[in-house]
């Protein structure tokens, strides 16, 4: 192809990447990319008949490439349930190498994204009596936290009044002299309880 004039830095540029089209500017593309610095240098004419530039690359990964070039922000593909999307990182690394984006390439090769996500987990435990309809957990949740509840059955020792008074059950202090006058001794019974463990996860991302 013959030589052409390099496009103006702020002029819109249309790219055909695989089966998708992207519109950006020359200034965005040449910042940090040796591939585009060469392509748009004006030394040859890579433009198709319709005025677009054809790029033989993965369009989905190129969306992440273009986002990086626009904002100079290193990507983090993290989900609270699945963790890091390592397949997406691997695909992006190939494209970063192809487009000659050194900073992004080193970031992905060194797996620096792992250290940019901090996950904190806390567990709190509450017991719910069977005869209670609801026993609210004493949890204070942050707006950026996720909580998972894990119910299990447990057993606890419950004080039994020597005279069998139901209102005194579980509360030894409620028994008076008449109760204590009984020579049956202090008794406890096993009572099934519903134990709920709440696991809270807090995720913070350092950009």
UniProtKB/TrEMBL annotation:
Signal peptide: none annotated. It comes from the Eukaryota. Residues 11-78 form the BTB domain. InterPro entries: BACURD1-3 (IPR045068), BTB/POZ_dom (IPR000210), SKP1/BTB/POZ_sf (IPR011333), T1-type_BTB (IPR003131). PANTHER family: BTB/POZ DOMAIN-CONTAINING ADAPTER FOR CUL3-MEDIATED RHOA DEGRADATION PROTEIN FAMILY MEMBER (PTHR11145), RE57120P (PTHR11145:SF8). This is BTB domain-containing protein. It comes from Aspergillus cavernicola.
